[in-house]
Amino acid sequence: MSLRPLARSSTSRVADLIAKRSLSAVFQPIVDFDGGAIIGYEGLIRGPAGSDLEAPFALFAQALAEDAVIPLEHAAAHACIEAFARLDYDGKLFLNFSAGAIRQLADARDETFALLRRSGVDASRIVIELTEQSAIPDVNHVLPAIATLRTVGAQFALDDYGTANASMNLWVRLRPDVVKIDRFFIHDIASDPLKFEAVKAMQSFANASGATLVAEGIENEADLIVVRDMGIGCGQGYFFGKPHARPPRKVANDARQAIRAGHIAVFPEATRTLAASPSGGMASAKMMVHAPALPRHATNNDVLELFNRLPHLHAVAVVERDLPVALINRRAFMDRYALPYHRELFGKRPCLLFANESPVIIEQSMTVEQMAKLLASDDQRYLADGFVITDNGKYAGLGTGENLVRAVTEVRIEAARYANPLTFLPGNIPISSHIARLLNNGAGFYACYVDLNHFKPFNDQYGYWQGDEVLKFAAAVLADVCDPTRDFLGHVGGDDFLILFQSDDCIERVQRAIHAFNEGAQRFYAPDDRLAGGIHGEDRRGNPTFFGFVTMAIGCVHVRPNSDRAPRTSEDIASIAALAKRRAKHESTGLVLIDAQESETLMQGRAEASHATLD
Asked: Which residue range or ranges hold the GGDEF domain (predicted)?
């Protein structure tokens, strides 16, 4: 902020710009999502208009070449403070400084804050942003400077969090009042599950540390709604305004309406990754038997002593330098030792004599899908011998074929609760979570339960592979009519899907889906069956029956925003939508819509029927 004489030659372009006061300030608004108001502005510097140093990147690159970065930072702050004072705007002024500039700022604090007083900008309105211009060689040198600036009322922000120099280490040690999330993580966060998870982790730490988060780089409504619904307090980006010498005093109407939008975000889910290759760590933990191993030089008597001491141990691994080299199965070993004179003849011989020197080995990091392939392979030695489990190649424990089957099954079932392995759509847990968010936020929506008529006979006639193709086609049709930023599509299981629409034209979208599916599903039939209009089969009682083509039925429940008569839980929503779906299966249009009042009547009828059954 303070401008000391710059000891540089007249050939320095940056020094000349500073001396001639040729730098100009622009400001970008920072918006509070709670009230929709502008709470401050980030001051940014520009070189002479039309020159090759107008852009800040070129300006600071030239300053770096001239060893004049810190003087430029101070001059930039001076220009921003004076311009901000002339604007006479409310709110805070965010100023960018490197670590070196912050130290000099604190050393000259009297001069610095005298400048603020002359400008009419109180120190309590200043937020000092530590930029990522360069790495901080020693954080301990910056801490006293920040403490000094805080004593006069200034706040401190960590800028561009998530980049190489703005790390968790800095956050913990500097304890910033504000953390600005780098725009890389915010851009397209509405469709990028990994960015979403990264920002969620930042939010969790911000809640623990008491820091206010500012999402930088917001450029569209979809990203804004996601960060808003995550609970991030503030945002900055072109969606609210580009840097300008005279920025807006209030948020524009379209941005304000987006902030106050009644619909909630559909959070991006990493369902494809989870369903396609869930980590084998959970499966390994479920099936691992923690058992001692024997060294290569152990004798058969050592093996016998171990098996006698641990009667439930099905096998023992032989290791060399912690690496598994063989496996000895209890039953095979004990059967051999039961033969006459075997103990006397072989007791002192090396244990590798009766060992399997090519055991099945499973690495802990192996995916569940890789484990499943092992179950389907021709090599079935693990069923009798068991197998060795390793951690980065080193012996960790043992497993049995039975445990492998159970572990893979349990992990797959658990994964299917989060994501359907066939369609990769969210499963029951994400569905329930999204319904709860809709209800808790008082958002209006349509819960649409989707079912396929005559799917079971088709599946029986054409087989599971063809049936799976029909299910994937249904998922694609439904996804095509959903707005991914407003509408949540989940796969309950089998041929049941659930859509939570926030799009206003929900009914038109549903009708398009029914028409597209009913037309497209006929291509999965053989030509003769298409000509016949369906297939011959048996009903649930075994009676010969003719079944028409597979068609789509959708039962919709309209839950109005902030309605006192709306269902209160995700279970209520799912149950009522299922009842509406049953009605839809008997309608020629394949569609039934129930409003909130009828939903309540249905709930009461269901409760009365339940009581009657109990009585």
From this structure: 443-597
Task: Please give the average pLDDT of every successive group of 10 residues along the chain, which has 615 residues.
Answer: 41 84 96 95 94 92 91 93 94 93 82 77 91 70 87 90 73 92 95 92 92 96 96 96 96 93 86 45 74 94 94 93 93 86 87 89 78 64 76 91 75 70 89 92 93 95 94 96 94 95 96 97 96 90 91 94 77 89 94 76 52 39
Q: Residue 271 phi/psi, 5° resolution?
A: -75, -40
Tokens 């919709």 label which residue?
A: 556
Domains of the chain: 20-259 (3.20.20.450), 281-412 (3.10.580.10), 420-614 (3.30.70.270)
The answer for 436, left when phi > 0, alpha when psi is -120 to 50, beta otherwise, is: alpha
Rounded CA separation 452/280 (Å): 34
Q: Where are the alpha helices (DSSP H) in 260-394?
A: 271-276, 281-287, 300-309, 330-337, 342-346, 368-376, 381-385
| Tokens describing residue 162 | 């998530």
Tokens 């008997």 sit at which residue? 586
Residue tagged 């401050």 (tokens): 40
Measured CA distances, 338 to 301, 330, 332, 355 (Å): 13, 12, 10, 16
The residues, any chain, with a CB within 8 Å of residue 162's CB and separated by 6 or more, are 181, 182, 184, 185, 198, 202
Q: Classify residue 264 by its DSSP letter.
A: P
Alpha carbons 131 and 135: distance in angstroms, whole number: 9
Closest of 469, 459, 391, 442 to residue 559, by C-alpha: 442
Concatenated DSSP letters for 178-226? EEEEPHHHHTTTTT-HHHHHHHHHHHHHHHHHTPEEEE----SHHHHHH
